[in-house]
Amino acid sequence: MNIIGIIASQRKEGNTAFIVNKILEGAKEQSAETSIFGFADLDIKPCRGCWGCHKSDRGCVIKDDMQKIYDALEHADAIVLGLPIYMGQMSAQGKIFTDRLFARFSPRFSPFFKENAVKQKLILSFNQGNPDADLFKTYIDYTKQMFEMLEFDVKEVPVVTGLRNGPAHEREDLRTSLKDFGSALVVYP
Ligand SMILES: Cc1cc2nc3c(=O)[nH]c(=O)nc-3n(C[C@H](O)[C@H](O)[C@H](O)COP(=O)(O)O)c2cc1C
């Protein structure tokens, strides 16, 4: 099984990076092949809305580091998308990644939309400073539905809360629970 992690945060050693890495660690322990893409290391521009991806079979016309993710997406069985909550929503990096998925609808990605195509599994991993897990529930539920509309098989939507009280890497409770999400991803039917 091939799993890719996306860190939609500019903080190379921030909470989202820790969380995505831990989830992937659990998957690796179940012999999954993993790779990771972090916005801190990548130059990924916003969608231009040019519809170029729909006009040809060459995918997105923006030749930046998102091309590496497109290539990885083609071979991925599952995705772990790490999304910090900024101002009550996914980070701008998360939204840029999501918008650039628009090119999945181009002929380049048509195999994903063939009848009976196997959907890619997705863990939508949110994290936030506030300790209240229900605070952004409406937004998080909506986002899950949106990814389902994009034909992802959303398996889990873990929400790590209370990070304003200390960084994720200092939270003993997270180490096992996050790895469990990753290992479950490998054994899901
Ligand atoms: C610009 C900004 C906006 C934020 N807005 C919220 C918010 O609305 N609610 C919340 O609970 N936490 C908020 N936070 C806290 C982050 O969600 C939290 O620190 C997260 O773990 C950051 O992940 P990172 O280290 O990968 O950037 C915000 C942080 C930043 C930098």
TrEMBL record:
GO MF term list: oxidoreductase activity
Coiled coil residues, start to end: none
Pfam families xref list: FMN_red (PF03358)
InterPro entries cross-referenced by the UniProt entry: Flavoprotein-like_sf, FMN_Rdtase-like_dom, ISF_SsuE-like
Q: Where does the record place the NADPH-dependent FMN reductase-like domain?
A: 1-108
The protein's UniProt keywords, in alphabetical order, are: Flavoprotein, FMN
According to UniProt, the name of this protein is Iron-sulfur flavoprotein
